Amino acid sequence: MPRITVTVDGITYQEDVEPRLLLVHLLRDRLGKTGTPIGCDTGNCGACTVMLDGMSVKSCSVLAVQADGNDVVTIEGLAHGNEWHPMQKAFHEEHALQCGYCTPGMIMAAIDLLRDDPDPSEETVREGLEGNLCRCTGYCNIVRAVRRGAREMSQRSMPEQAEQTEREVRTP
Amino acid sequence: MSEQLDAGLIAEQIAESDQLSRPSGAHEVGKARRRKEDARLVTGRTTWTDNIQLPGMLYVAFLRSPMAHARITRVDTSAARTRPGVVAVYSGQDFADEQGSLPCAWPVTEDIVIPDHPPMAVEEVRYVGEAVACVVATDRYKAADALEAIEVDYEPLDAVIDMTEALAEGSPKVHETGNKAFTWKFAGGDIDAAFRDAPVVIDRTYVQQRLIPTAMEPRAVVATTDGETFTLYSSTQIPHVLRVMLALTTGIPEHKLRVIAPDVGGGFGSKLQVTAEEVLGLLITRRLGKPVKWTESRTEGNLTVHHGRDQLQRISIAAGRDGLIRGVRVDLLADMGAYLMLVTPGIPILGAFMYNGIYKMDAYDFTCTGVFTTKMPTDAYRGAGRPEATFAIERAMDELAHELGLDPIELRRRNWITHEEFPYTTICGLTYDSGNYEAATDRALALLGYDKLRAEQADRRDRRDPVQLGIGVSTFTEMCGLAPSRVLGSLSYGAGGWEHSSVRMLPTGKVEVVTGTSPHGQGHETAWSQIVADALGVPFDDVSVLHGDTSISHKGMDTYGSRSLVVGGIAVLQACEKVKDKARELAAHMLEASADDIEFAAGTFKVRGTDSGKTIQELALATFAAHDLPDRFEPGLDADATFDPDNFSFPHGTHLCAIEVDTETGATKIRSYVAVDDVGSVVNPLIVEGQVHGGIAQGIAQALFEEAVYDSEGNMLTTTMADYLIPSASDLPDFTTDRTETPATSNPLGVKGVGEAGTIASTPAIVNAIVDALRPYGVHDVRMPCTPERVWRTVIAAGETAWVGPGLAGNTGGTAEGNTAWVGPGLAGDTTDRGEPGTAGDRTDWVGPTAAEGTEAEGGDR
Amino acid sequence: MIPAPFDYVRPASLDEACQVLGEAASSGDDVKVLAGGQSLLPLLRLRLAYPSALVDLGRLPELRGVEDRGDHVFIGALTTHDEVLRSGVVRERIPLVALATATVADPAVRHRGTFGGSMAHADPAGDLPAVALALDCVFVVRSGEGEREIPAAEFFVDYLESALEPGEVLIGVKVPALGPGWGFHYEKFHRTAQAWAIVGVAAAVRRSNGTIEEARIGLTNMGSTPVRARAVEAAIRGVSIAAAGSNGAHDPVRDACAGADEGTSPPSDLHAQPDYRRHLARVLTHRAIGVAGR
Known about the structure:
The complex is a heterotrimer of chains A (about 170), B (about 850) and C (about 290).
Chain A: E1 3-8, E2 11-16, H1 23-30, E3 49-52, E4 55-58, E5 71-73, H2 86-93, H3 103-113, H4 122-128, H5 140-156, H6 162-170
Parallel strand pairs in A: 1-5
Antiparallel strand pairs in A: 1-2, 3-4, 3-5
Helix pairs in contact in A: 2-5, 3-5
Chain B: H1 2-5, H2 9-16, H3 38-43, E1 58-64, E2 70-76, H4 78-81, E3 86-91, H5 92-95, E4 124-125, E5 131-137, H6 140-147, E6 151-156, H7 163-167, E7 180-188, H8 191-195, E8 200-211, E9 220-225, E10 230-234, H9 239-250, E11 257-260, H10 276-288, E12 292-295, H11 298-304, E13 308-319, E14 325-337, H12 346-352, E15 363-372, H13 386-404, H14 408-415, E16 424-425, E17 431-432, H15 437-448, H16 450-463, E18 467-477, H17 485-490, E19 499-505, E20 511-515, H18 524-536, E21 543-546, H19 564-590, E22 598-601, E23 604-607, E24 613-615, H20 616-625, E25 639-643, E26 652-662, E27 668-678, H21 685-704, E28 736-739, H22 757-774, H23 788-799, H24 825-834, H25 850-859
Parallel strand pairs in B: 1-12, 10-11, 14-15, 20-21, 27-28
Antiparallel strand pairs in B: 1-5, 2-4, 2-6, 3-5, 7-15, 8-13, 9-10, 9-12, 13-14, 16-17, 18-26, 19-20, 19-25, 22-23, 23-24, 26-27
Helix pairs in contact in B: 2-20, 12-13, 13-14, 13-22, 16-25, 18-19, 21-22
Chain C: E1 7-9, H1 14-27, E2 31-34, H2 40-45, E3 53-56, E4 66-68, E5 72-76, H3 81-86, H4 88-93, H5 95-101, H6 107-112, H7 115-121, H8 128-134, E6 138-143, E7 146-151, H9 152-155, E8 156-158, E9 161-162, E10 169-176, E11 182-189, E12 199-208, E13 211-220, E14 227-228, H10 230-236, H11 252-257, H12 274-292
Parallel strand pairs in C: 1-3, 2-3
Antiparallel strand pairs in C: 4-5, 5-10, 6-7, 6-10, 8-9, 11-12, 12-13, 13-14
GO molecular function (chain B): iron ion binding; oxidoreductase activity
Protein name (chain B): Carbon-monoxide dehydrogenase large subunit
Keywords (chain B): Molybdenum, Oxidoreductase
């Protein structure tokens, strides 16, 4: 059984894993990172989206062994203590969630799309979220939240808040 | 403060510790409060059922039938038992004596056939996905592996797929009793008179395709026992109903069974069920004495979560030349699937009262036949019978408008109940308490820019633009707030429609609200807090809402049918009133005044005309100490209330949309969507808007994207999300939403419910728009989902005799700008064979722009 | 759902990978190469495939990257779609690849899924094989025996079947950089953003003085392999581009596209029957040429 080393939300784990173990099952069943849920079998729904070395991936479509030596950030690793990530706040403020099952993946995908466009248009947001399905919200408020989160993140990126910015750039 | 309270030491400490809350005069109801639920959901601190881990937990995996219909001749579990990590393997035979039959609580007629429905098939399977065996293993991977070692032999039987064929003489039978479950009839007025000599009769047949509800959280069950009592965690909308039904099914005494709905990731009706997996989970934990967990895969879910819709609707309208409706006749075939589940037969019946929509008429006649097929059973899906009804009447109204050359809005105006006429008792015998269809429609027309779009449409028609524009109209109402128990009784439903709440005043002045509703995304924790904050004059943040655990909330009817606020919210309010009554008595005692002289405002009970008063928190604390209470006053202010409504509520609204149809490819694009809903008074506008958004998206998805498809052998072809298409953000537009507010008169909050409105309204709006775009081609219908291929085929089938572009007519049509299609005769011939019923047959000729002109003329007097 | 068990090998070098795959080939083991895994893992989860082992090439940096080699651009097989999209070389020298790649799946899948993996998977509904065919890409493969090159026209053999022999690894693709005067477009027609193309058209068009000198058209999902629309390519030579999509009664570009479905055998599935796909191929080819030739 391969032994892997993986950092999840800042904590480094060494685990012996079956080659077929899915990253999402490693997170949920072995490491207790149940904040990341599973919604499908085919990589369509995006509920299980996490950051792998800073880029969004669907953790149901990655083997745990493929994450060997990598850094994973889940929804549980976004907040700084009790201070939520601006995107978490924006989802709350804009009522961008109802049942909340898609929310962890949606937030990770939202943060990811801002890497390329810190001030995305509605269309850019909709395209950037095409791999994440929500059944409750009709997406209107999610789109609003992502744009709000984007604005708040760029305001925070002001030089005088360099320290916080550093954290945001690194973790999400 | 403490000396006044004359309380004990603890009470004094509480009072001095600054923990005692202060009253609040803030008005919470109507405020766009951000949700309390969000904190755990946006940070991942959730308790989905699959997150639950218990010591020694075992994992269950089900082997499911690959056959739509077959006799099970052999199940050999011996090899699977030897696989690593396998604790037990069971077939249906192993449970035959104890598993009972999954319940159907809605026998709609006396002669209804309710077949035995074993949770695990024993002798025969009747749909693909039916459980035939299961493995219990030490982890989910090992359980999945061992499934492959179970051998099952089947003797194939004929699949029964099509409802019409199922009812034909000589059809193979799903059950020995035949394929008809029931025929249910309902009528009002003299329908024959209405149709006799009617100048206009519209007769249409619509297909309500089968849908898969697809809540984002797949179902999951955790069952555990200490040997005597049982606890079942389930991703369910109905912990209370489930507990009763599971007790009846499994024989576990109700008081030894606790059901918990932890965080539940959406339902839309699909989790309003008593499932095989819940029953079997309990039976397995009873046998093994260990906690067990089963988590559904999406593929399993597409096969075995109950489906929605699947009806064949024939609707006829008899009308005068003036467009006034004389009568509506509906003949429905409803696909039950292989068995009758919890409320399967009742779903089309819920629609029976809605085919008249918002319109006045003299007569109504409704017949529904429930048909068995070898498919997954159908049951409640967002709207449950009412979207189907609204679709049929709103589609048929557009057909009538077209037939008469009237603007569809104008036709509706002529027929709808005007705001002065409320309360209005409809032909179906329902009394619509309040509404203002004119106001909602006028607002929607203004927001859409209706007249301008009609002008653009006429222009595109004139230019014969290959991209045509259609405007869809849907004016709807729905019966919500399920439901008055007496009415349910008259419809043979097995339970009541009341709801329960308790309000507990804690010593520090904080409030716990127990509700029998079971939210799974609707935001009850927030909305109920707002109601309580206003009723008791306590701060919003001082209220906690408890739900979803039968040990905490012992009594309830749960969440479905847009009932939670309209019934459950009122129960909360009534419990608060009882708390205040008690508090008033105590205040009078403590203030040495008569209870009649005590007035309550902003959380404080005061002696009228004085400054002397007690806050509700002080009173709560006083009952904790209980040192100085009136005689025979029970310590505590807590109160229970159970509310049973007298009437349904009737939210309504007008949804309009503009859709571009690319006639060359059949692609459709929603250009704008406007929804003006009237859900009565609003507790939280943010939540209301969210519900409308989500509802619209689901209704659009039915119109454009979704269909559960079975082949002729009963195999499902849409088992994954790659095949069953759920729209993403990039497949939907932004929605423009607004509200009018006509308070319900049937409850003290004036609320009507909002959970289903968007879904009910949007589906016909979309299809009406697509048909409207294609009117110039003589098109009268496009079957749902309106896929590009279907739209294209409809255009092509019509195109043979209607608009002919150069490509079709050998480049002779020199005036036409757009060439609609590239079809040679061979292709068109091909097409006719596959043409949708009802569309290819009765087309005549290019019928625009006459209709459009008529439209403008009629629409002009708004 | 959960994959069946398999062994896992992560070679440290390309040579080792070739050796492992060579040994598996000679022993007849059903070994699958794991690149990004975005197609393979869903298949494994649904238990539609039961390989005895996966050979993970994901840690071989030599298979990753985009290199401008003058007349062509070499894309390493393990270059992710995301890296392809971020490559200035791709955007400037082989823009058709960028246009098609942008339509592949969604951002998260593009972070993992690879250019070579999409090709080797040989799904005719995939967007990139049609591009490779249209551009006459050359596939560079290696085994223990050495390297060989396979032209795109021979690479896609059948549904999910490429010309890769057991023991061979796709190490990269040479994408010809067409010179100035060429325009490009990928027209994808699908029901939802996530859905596979019902039909896709990859078009490269060379114009000169308002006339189409040359066109290369690859079709997605019009057969068991991607298909080249040769009839259109022949018929469109010398046609005036000004007429494309024009409003006149006669559109010679449209006429030329009438043969877009020639030689195809489009599949029948939930989303489309063959005759509709044929029709779409004609309409979309016309549209693609209209945009590419602009």
